[in-house]
């Protein structure tokens, strides 16, 4: 069963896509969008999580700018609009909205109370930030763009964190990836995997640079990591 829920915060409210498993007492996973909004790809991630026994909740993080953004990754016009929204997005407010979503996801009817976060690109960065600033049980970040700009917060990451990076990512340079790995290398709760020959968004279902083999490996690691820390 899939539907939407409303999440209220001090200065307004926003919608989130929800996909639920058939079994009660399931843990929750908050899914964090790329710059394309809560689109078909994000909903597919949620549906896949629900099929694996998780309650998946994907909040509309662009609601303050434009509620209901639903773009695709193969349209030049959608890329231009998404990049504009990305550039203007307030990341600190975004982290607060994610914290509100985590609270809501953990108290949904039949939820177990355990909550993880899983994000992509912008959502991957926000996954890192909520792991440093918030309270979550587990975090998974796919190709978190600009994470290297926030590494002063790395020591505050206490939850188990899994990161996926493509070694040919056109938006996360080799130097940036090296900095990320160095900043997190001493943390036993952090695992970083790099995928050879992969560009940005190699695991996106509809992505130009989709790599089926690497995506299958990364996703298999993700499902195992979430199960290990949320069951």
Q: What does the model show?
A:
The protein has 231 residues and is α/β, with parallel strands linked by helices. It is 36% helix and 24% strand. The chain has helices spanning 40-51, 76-88, 91-106, 122-133, 174-184, 212-230; strands at residues 2-9, 12-19, 26-32, 55-59, 111-120, 138-142, 161-166, 190-195. An eight-stranded mixed β-sheet has the order 1-2-4-3-5-6-7-8, with helices on both faces. Helix 4 (122-133) links the parallel strand 5 and strand 6. It is globular and about 45 Å long. 46% of the residues are buried.
Beta-strand residue fraction: 15-25%
Secondary structure tally, helices: 6
| Shape type | globular
Structural class: alpha/beta
The amount of helix comes to 25-40%
Average per-residue pLDDT, rounded, comes to 96
Q: Show unreliable segments.
A: none
Order of helices and strands: EEEHEHHEHEEHEH
Measured between the Cα atoms of the first and last residue, the distance is 21 Å
Query: The biggest beta sheet, please?
Result: 8 strands, mixed
Radius of gyration: 16 Å
Spatial sequence of strands, sheet with the most strands: 1-2-4-3-5-6-7-8
Q: How many extended strands?
A: 8
């Amino acid at each position: 069963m899939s539907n939407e829920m409303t999440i209220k915060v001090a200065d307004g409210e926003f919608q989130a896509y929800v996909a639920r498993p058939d079994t009660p007492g399931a843990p929750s996973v908050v899914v964090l969008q790329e710059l394309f909004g809560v689109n078909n790809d994000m909903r597919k991630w949620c549906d896949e999580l629900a099929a694996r026994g998780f309650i998946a909740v994907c909040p509309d993080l662009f609601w303050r700018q434009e509620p209901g953004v639903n773009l695709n990754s193969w349209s030049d016009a959608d890329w231009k609009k998404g990049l504009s929204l990305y550039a203007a997005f307030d990341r600190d407010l975004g982290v607060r909205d994610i914290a509100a979503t985590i609270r809501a996801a953990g108290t949904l009817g039949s939820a177990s109370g355990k909550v993880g976060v899983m994000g992509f690109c912008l959502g991957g960065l926000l996954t890192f930030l909520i792991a440093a600033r918030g309270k979550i049980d587990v975090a998974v970040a796919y190709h978190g763009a600009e994470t290297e700009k926030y590494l002063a917060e790395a020591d505050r990451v206490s939850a188990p964190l899994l990161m996926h990076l493509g070694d040919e990512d056109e938006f996360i340079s080799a130097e940036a990836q090296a900095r990320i790995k160095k900043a997190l290398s001493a943390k036993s709760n952090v695992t970083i995997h790099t995928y050879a020959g992969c560009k940005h968004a190699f695991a996106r279902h509809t992505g130009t640079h989709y790599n089926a083999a690497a995506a299958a490996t990364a996703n298999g690691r993700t499902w195992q990591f979430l199960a290990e820390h949320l069951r």
